[in-house]
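Minutes, project huddle
Topic: does the predicted pose make sense with flavin mononucleotide bound?
PN asked that the exact inputs be recorded in the minutes so nobody has to dig through chat later. Recorded below.
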Amino acid sequence: MKNIVLGVSSSVSIYKACEIIRGLQGEACEVRVIMTRNAAHLISPRLFSALTGKATYVELFEEQMSQHIPHIDLARETELLLLAPATANLLGKLASGIADDFLTTFYLAVDCPVLVAPAMNENMYLHPQTQANIRKLKAAGAVFLEPVQGYLACGVEGWGRLASPEEIVQCTIDSLKMSESLKGQRILITAGPTREYLDPIRYLSNRSSGRMGYLLAEDAVKKGAEVCLVSGPSQLYPPRGARFKAVETANEMHDEVQGLISEMDVVIMAAAVSDFSFVDFSTQKIKKRDATLGIALKPTPDILEVLGKAKKKTILVGFAAETEDVEAHALEKIRRKNLDLIVANDVSQPDIGFDVDQNQVSLYTPKGLLKRTEKLGKREISRIILDEIEVLVERSKRK
Ligand SMILES: Cc1cc2nc3c(=O)[nH]c(=O)nc-3n(C[C@H](O)[C@H](O)[C@H](O)COP(=O)(O)O)c2cc1C
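Predicted holo structure (C-alpha cells), as shared on screen:
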C-alpha cells in the first residue's frame, strides 16, 4: 500500500475528488484527505472520511490532536501529495510559502513528490499572477497536471477544467513508479564552481551557481537513488536526502571524487571545475607594491578524463559549457573522456546557462546527437537528463 495524501480545495469540481479517491484505492493506495476550510463549505469532511475510512484533516488546531503535531506526523509517512482540485487561491498561497491552515502547512512539511491538478475559471487560470504562481511551484519541484479545455461550471467553454479523475489517478501512479526508477543506484554528482587561490584572500573562479547539479541531486533522490553531492562553493542549500561534501578547489574535488568512485554506479560531473590554477600560491596576502602584472597558470587535473581512462562499468556523464562550435567540442570531449553522455550548452547566450534559471541543452552519446531541448527551466532540464540516465542504467543492467 502506498500512502497518498489528497489535498482538496474549494473548487466546484470538488465532487470529482471522490472518484479520484476510489481510483487510487483501486491501485493499492491508502488515501488520506486534507481539506481547506472553504472546501468544507462545499462538501462535508465526513464524506471523505467515509470513503477513506480515516479522519479528514481540516483544522490545524484540533483539541483531540493536541498530544501530537499532526501535520508533521502525517508528512513523515506520506509518499505522494496530490492537490486536486487546486484553486487559484491555493496555488498563490503555496507559491508564496503561506502556511495558515492544515493543507498549506502540510505542503511545506512534506519532502515527497507533489502533484498538482488545478481547476478554475479560464480567466483565473490565464491570469498572469496564477501563471507566475504555477511557474514558481514548478521551479520548486511540483509536477502539474494542466487543466483541460471544456465546459466550465461558470457556463462557458474554456481552459481551466480539472483533468479527468482517470488521468489524475494514472499520473499519480506513474509518479509513484518514477519515485523508484533509480532505486538502488549510487549516483555521485558534482556541482558549483571551484576556487583556485592565489593567496589567502584572492581566487580564480567562474559564474557557476551550482543550481543544475543541486537540482539533479534533488531529482535523483526523488527517483530513489542514493546520492552523494560534491559541491564547490555555492549559495544553495544541500538537497534533502543526499550525502553532501563541500570542497573548494579543483584538487579537493578531484580527491573527493577519486575517494568515492569505487562505490558509484553513475557519476554526473555538473561542476564547473576551473581549468587552471596558479603556479605559485602565496601564504601571505600579496601586497599591491609586490605584485607583478604577469601571473602564471597551470592546468588543473581533468577529473572526468581521469575517470574515463580508468572506467569499467560506471556510467559517466559530463557537461560541456562552450561559447563556440558547441557540437564539435561536445563530441570531441565525449570521445576523449570516454563518457556515456554529455550535456552541452552554449554559455555565450546571456539568458541561458550560467547563473540563470533557464537553459537549452543538447544531449550527445558517443554515437552523436540524442536530443536537443528547447529553452526550459533548469528543473525540466534536470528531469530530461535523468530520464536519459535511466535509459543508460537499464541498458547497463542488461549487459
Ligand atoms: C461555488 C464555488 C465554486 C468555486 N470554484 C472555484 C474553482 O473551480 N477554482 C477556483 O480557483 N476557485 C473557485 N472558487 C473560489 C474559491 O472557492 C475561493 O477563491 C476560495 O477563497 C478558495 O479557498 P481555498 O483555496 O482555501 O479552498 C469557487 C467558489 C465558489 C463559491
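Observations noted during the meeting:
- The mean pLDDT is 92.
- The first strand starts at residue 2 and ends at 8.
No decisions taken; revisit at the next huddle.
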